Amino acid sequence: MHRLRVSASIAALVLTFALTLAAAASACAQSPTKAPPASYFDNSGYPDALSGGVRMIPIKTPDGTFHVWTKRVGNNPRIKVLLLHGGPGMTHEYLEAFDSYFPGQGIQYYYYDQLGSYYSDQPKDTKLWTLPRFVDEVEQVRKALGLNKDNFYLYGHSWGGVLAMQYALKYPQHLKGLIISNMMASVPAYNDYAHKVLMPAMDPKALAEILALEKQGKTDDPKYMQLLIPNFYEKHLLRMPPEQWPDPVNRTFKHANETVYTLMQGPSEMGAGGRLLLWDVSKQLKDIPVPTLVIAGRYGTMDPKYMEWMAGQVQHGRFLLCPHGSHMDLYDDQKVYMAGLIKFINDVDTGRFPKPVHTQ
């Protein structure tokens, strides 16, 4: 649900440190616990084999047919994870951290840029940017990729979590597992947490200036980001100095579609507005029947206690708290995040979660 307008000074720092950071991220990545089986690299029968896993999928919309970008990594007939990025209007790029973990576990996964995002078509009709149309898009992608209840895990981070929850409520019959990462089931509850918990903890002078700029419609003023980065982003979005942010994160922000983002999320970074302002499925969580993992960062923009509650509302839920993590805990508490996520996927696959009910 967040994006960053990188200022010229921050962009310069990013360029300076990009190669160093990429090498550091690779060196720090957790070593795979085992080598994937040879079948993991079997591309037989995949129409994307010629293009290294990349496939442009046609999507029918009320405004005509467009194409979205996907990329497959690996082959596993039992585990196929479709990754829904945040935003809306961000890209798959910041999710590339999975490359350091999923292949070593033999997990097949798909990157996917939603319609309007950088690698996919970017139609101009603003009527396309609605939650129901995005849900329909995910279903078209699922069909094109051949995912089904025996292998289909849907992962959603931030806005992707909104999309994943809404999809699970409409199409639970197609899912094997659901992962909701760093997203509450209610935008009003999220905004309430921001106003009652996050904002009061900020420097009062900086907060007043940030809110004044938002009220004046000056969120594109360089001063806005100069205030927001040290006072909010470094504490709740990604707990690293901006010059140390990993390259995949910086590329995502560089390639963001601001039009889609602002229409859906709103211009403020201190909460959500736009077309998602009243979105709330908290009372419908009980209708999600598939095994579900809810992931929260202790220091994130979303209320971790609320997300723990969410895990208890779905029919088969598990909660993962990243004690050192923020909204981007897949980076700032990466080992805990990835270990818990991989364990959930494997437990569902092997039948260890949810525990089978024995009847006499």
Give the helices and strands, then pairings.
Layout lengths: L7 H21 L25 E8 L2 E10 L6 E5 L23 E6 L17 H15 L6 E6 L1 H12 L6 E5 L5 H12 L5 H12 L6 H16 L9 H8 L3 H8 L26 E6 L6 H10 L3 E6 L6 H4 L1 H17 L10
Parallel strand pairs: 3-4, 3-5, 5-6, 6-7, 7-8
Antiparallel strand pairs: 1-2, 2-4
Helix pairs in contact: 2-3, 5-6
Keywords for this structure?
8 strands; 360 residues; globular; Rossmann fold; 11 helices; alpha/beta
What can you tell me about this protein's structure?
This protein is an alpha/beta fold and 360 residues long. It has one domain: Rossmann fold (3-Layer(aba) Sandwich), CATH 3.40.50.1820. The protein is 38% helix and 14% strand. It is built from eleven helices and eight strands. Strand 5, helix 3 (159-170) and strand 6 (177-181) form a beta-alpha-beta unit. Helix 2 (131-145) crosses helix 3 (159-170) and helix 5 (204-215) packs across helix 6 (222-237). It is globular, with a radius of gyration of 20 Å. Residues 5-32 have low confidence and may be disordered.
Shape: globular
Which spans of ≥5 residues are poorly predicted at pLDDT below 50?
Answer: 5-32
Question: In DSSP terms, counting alpha (H) and pi (I) runs of 4 or more, how many helices?
Answer: 11
Give a count of the beta strands, DSSP E runs of length 2 or more.
8
* SSE sequence, one letter per element: HEEEEHEHEHHHHHEHEHH
Q: What do we call the CATH homologous superfamily? A: Alpha/Beta hydrolase fold, catalytic domain
For the biggest sheet, the summary is: 8 strands, mixed
Q: Provide the β-strand percentage band.
A: 5-15%
Could you say what the CATH topology is called?
A: Rossmann fold
Please give the alpha-carbon distance between the first and last residues: 47 Å
Structural class: alpha/beta
Rg from C-alpha positions? 20 Å
CATH class: Alpha Beta
**Can you name the CATH architecture?**
3-Layer(aba) Sandwich
Mean pLDDT: 92
Q: How many distinct folded domains?
A: 1
Level of helix content?
Answer: 25-40%
Strand ordering within the main sheet: 1-2-4-3-5-6-7-8
